Amino acid sequence: MNTEIIKIDPNNIDVSLIDRAAETIRRGGLVVFPTETVYGLGANTFDPKAVAKVYGAKNRPADNPLISHICSLDQVEELARDVPDMAWKLAERFWGGPLTMILKRRETVPDIVSAGLDTVSIRFPSHSVAYELIGRSGVPIAAPSANLSGSPSPTAARHAIDDMNGRVDVIIDGGDSLIGVESTVVDMTCGVPTVLRPGAVTAEDIASVTGRCVYGGDYANAPKCPGMKYTHYSPRAEVWAVTDMSKAPKDENSVIITYGGGGFDRPAYNAGDTVKDYAAKLFYFLRRADEDGFGTVYARLPEEKGIGIAVRNRLLKAAGGKIL
Ligand code: TXA
Ligand code: MG
Q1: Total-model pTM
Q2: How many domains, the chain?
Q3: 298 is in which domain, residue-wise?
Q4: Are 159 and 249 within one domain?
């Protein structure tokens, strides 16, 4: 397939370019687009044939449901029914932004979007390009992260292109994703809001609106969020999560990923000053390690608070649980 790559400045959007991509969505094609979390691989939610192509393009297992992306609250009820008050409150507080809510599915949503579950997941991104693309398409856009299944999610256009060139109709290059880890997935169908995948919006943030919110048991393996059971986020290099960098062996051909400064007498990628900077760059550097030919990555395991909860979750998966 011939893939068209379109560069769009998120701060100065050329709507004629967005319209080309929106037209592709409407006629059943696939469009890779930037969001504030990671790049998405999108198709019209209401077109089951187009959604089937999404699964094909990234070799995604058929039992792993997709998130529908919207750009207006009116679209919630096209997708979901019996939406609880708490969900509207969360929408008001956190949309557009990195929060995905699982709600009861309307029967008009094709089975393939929800992988046969009776729920639907909905997200309203804050990214200007995503917002315009959804709006101009006129339909919700079902989109997983734009990586081949198992690889780290792309947070730079170049990485989305590496995985998706030749597999989709259009790739929109809208610069780097600012957040860098995928959205928080919260199940709103089970009484107490339950986080199935941690992200930039924490359970504490959600509880500040709803009163209560819990992490779903062992959320790293929560069977309710089918995607969490697959091997994830792994580069070719062997990854270790490291609590104390002085423990990381100085073997040849290895690189450190860290944040918060410090001098290194060995190859190192420094993401910036804070754990937020680290979240923004972790997936980027996992892919960079492969590009630069490193065989082993030692990545700092951050503290379990704030966005650090999400970063730990992704890093431990990339590392297959290996901690130093
Ligand atoms: O930030 C994000 O959420 C990105 C951008 C593109 O929006 N999207 C993303 O999609 O990360 P994906 O497909 O890579 O991850 C969605 C996760 C998967 O683990 C999936 O199993 C879960 O959400 N999920 C989706 N719909 C669900 C549902 N109805 N019930 C339970 N889990 C669901
Ligand atoms: Mg994904």
Answers
A1: 0.95
A2: 2
A3: 222-318
A4: no
> To which residue do tokens 């959804």 refer?
134
Q: Is residue 141 part of a domain?
A: yes
Pair (150, 39) in one structural domain:
yes
324 is a domain residue:
no
Average pLDDT over residues 294-301: 97
Q: Write the pLDDT tens digit of every residue in 307-316.
A: 999 999 999 9
For ligand 1, is residue 40 a contact (CB within 6 Å)? yes
- The answer on 231 and 167 residing in a single domain is no
- Per residue in 18-59, pLDDT (tens digit) is 999 999 999 999 999 999 999 999 999 999 999 999 999 999
Query: Could you say which ligand is closest to the alpha carbon of residue 142?
Result: 1
Ligand 1 centre to CA of 122 (Å) is 9
State whether the beta carbon of 227 lies less than 6 angstroms from ligand 1: yes
Q: What are the tens digits of pLDDT across the range 229-286?
A: 556 778 999 999 999 988 899 888 999 999 997 777 899 999 999 999 999 999 999 9
Beta carbons of 173 and 167 less than 8 angstroms apart: no
DSSP string, 118-132: SEEEEE----HHHHH
Statement to judge: residues 231 and 92 lie in one domain: no
93 CA to centre of ligand 2 in angstroms: 24
Ligand 1 binding pocket includes 117 (Cβ within 6 Å):
yes
List the structure tokens of 50. 């187009």
Determine contact, residues 186/100, Cβ cutoff 8 Å.
yes
Our mutation pick for probing the ligand 1 site, out of 102, 119, 121, counting the most ligand atoms within 8 A of Cβ, is 121
Q: Distance from the CA of 65 to the center of ligand 1, in angstroms?
A: 7
CB 157 within 8 A of CB 146: no
As a whole number of angstroms, the distance between CA 43 and CA 29 comes to 6
Q: Give the domain CATH number at 140.
A: 3.90.870.10
Is 221 a residue whose pLDDT tops 80?
A: no
Q: Looking at ligand 1, which residue's alpha carbon is closest to its atom 30? A: 225
User: From the CB of 45, is ligand 1 less than 6 Å away?
Assistant: no
| Residue 289 near residue 256, CB atoms below 8 Å | no
What is the number of the ligand 1 atom nearest to the C-alpha of 117? 29
Instruction: Tell me which ligand sits closest to the C-alpha of residue 37.
Output: 1
